[in-house]
Design goal:
Belongs to the TFB4 family. 31% of the residues lie in helices and 12% in strands. It has 367 residues and is an alpha/beta fold. The chain folds into two domains: 221 residues, von Willebrand factor, type A domain (Rossmann fold, 3-Layer(aba) Sandwich); 50 residues, no CATH class. The strands form three sheets. A six-stranded mixed sheet has the order 3-2-1-4-5-6, with helices on both faces. A two-stranded antiparallel sheet has the order 7-8. A two-stranded antiparallel ribbon has the order 9-10. Strand 7 and strand 8 form a beta hairpin. The structure holds zinc ion (ZN) (2 copies). The site of one zinc ion has 8 residues, from loops.
């Protein structure tokens, strides 16, 4: 029984507060949101998400956020806007200069709002409006979503911010790269690096993401290497690859039974950052769908053929036995008889030794 002592929670108060970067990938496939309209309209979901973002920004004044839309045909930035370097024409006066009247022209109607909240809300809603306005009929009927592109954008943004942060704060990321859980060891005066995580709010079904299998898996492996957890908030359907993403990166996966409670789920399950998560029992998933998609047709397969050289997966033996990826000629013998993985059913011999289970010692926090 541990003594009740909360001092470890406050050991970093003296040092510089370590910021946390939250990159949100919002699936805005219009088709999928239309199906969800009765339970959770898109406008309400977006409002909930903005409240969640505000909560994240309020946790620490150095916290950062990035929002990326995964639309049906492309991925786009919602915040920070990378295409708003030049002011829109209606803000310019007759000479083409920006009107300087002491306050930001758009956020003038909510002066009472904390400024970082206002900026995020303004840009996100404005960019969503632009994105939806530019959506044509082909986009609406498409059931796919550009998850791979959005994940890549999130990763590149995180990478850039991490490097910038390390440069300005002179912090080497040695300790974070060595830590197994992605959380850097806290040791007094050492200021911590930027901690990043990705949250995917997903509504599209998994069957259409099979053609993006390879780029999605590459993003997952990149996150795994960089210790970036991918959290998944699944509002409808179930996505094979997103389960694998959160499982491989030790993120939180939740498939919401009641999408109307989105805000509550976001606040309870997804708000804690990596440091807080060490002290929490997180919702985890045991029945992860580990199926892969074949490289030849992008079909999700239960049993496939794997090239022994490049590990490409095929749903059927490739023509002439030549691997479609690396071109190696493969010896495919009696494959029609029985797949090798099901050849023998051997009973596992249970060897239970008394007292063999060694309890893992709980790490004692170093002051
Ligand atoms: Zn195939
Ligand atoms: Zn191969």
């Amino acid at each position: 029984m541990n003594a009740v002592d909360a001092s470890e929670h406050y050991e970093n108060v003296a040092s510089e507060p370590a910021p946390s970067l939250l990159a949100i990938v919002l699936d805005i496939n219009p088709h999928a949101w239309a199906l969800l309209e009765e339970q959770l309209p898109f406008s309400k979901a977006l409002a909930n998400l903005l409240v969640f973002i505000n909560a994240h920004l309020a946790c620490n004044y150095t916290n950062e956020v990035a929002v990326i839309a995964s639309h049906s045909q492309r991925a786009a930035w919602l915040y920070p806007s990378h295409n708003q370097q030049k002011p829109s024409p209606n803000l310019l006066d007759a000479d083409g200069d920006v009107e300087m009247n002491g306050h930001a022209p758009r956020s003038s109607n909510n002066n009472n709002m904390y400024r970082p909240f206002g900026i995020v809300e303004e840009q996100v809603t404005e960019n969503v409006r632009e994105l939806l306005a530019s959506t044509d009929a082909a986009d609406v009927s498409a059931t796919s979503t550009m998850m791979a592109g959005a994940l890549t954008l999130a990763l590149s943004h995180i990478n850039r911010r991490t490097m910038t942060w390390a440069e300005t704060h002179g912090n080497s990321n040695i300790d974070t790269s060595n830590a197994p859980t992605g959380s850097s060891t806290t040791s007094g005066s050492v200021s911590l690096g930027l901690q990043s995580r990705i949250l995917i709010v997903s509504v599209s079904s998994s069957t259409d993401s099979a053609h993006q299998y390879i780029p999605i898996m590459n993003s997952i492996f990149a996150c795994q290497r960089l210790h970036i957890p991918i959290d998944v908030c699944k509002l409808s359907g179930d996505a094979v690859f997103l389960q694998q993403a959160s499982d491989a990166t030790r993120g939180v996966y939740m498939s919401l039974k009641e999408p109307r409670g989105l805000l509550q789920y976001l606040m309870m399950a997804f708000l804690p950052d990596q440091r807080s998560r060490k002290h929490l029992i997180l919702p985890s998933r045991v029945d992860v769908d580990f199926r892969a998609a074949c490289f030849c047709h992008r079909r999700v397969v239960n049993i496939g053929w794997v090239c022994s050289i490049c590990l490409s997966i095929f749903c059927e033996p490739p023509e002439n036995g030549d691997c479609l990826t690396c071109g190696t000629h493969l010896e495919i013998g009696e494959y029609e008889l029985r797949p090798a993985v099901l050849a023998k059913k051997r009973k596992k011999r249970k060897t239970r030794l008394n007292g063999s289970a060694t309890p893992t010692p709980t790490p004692t926090p170093t002051a």
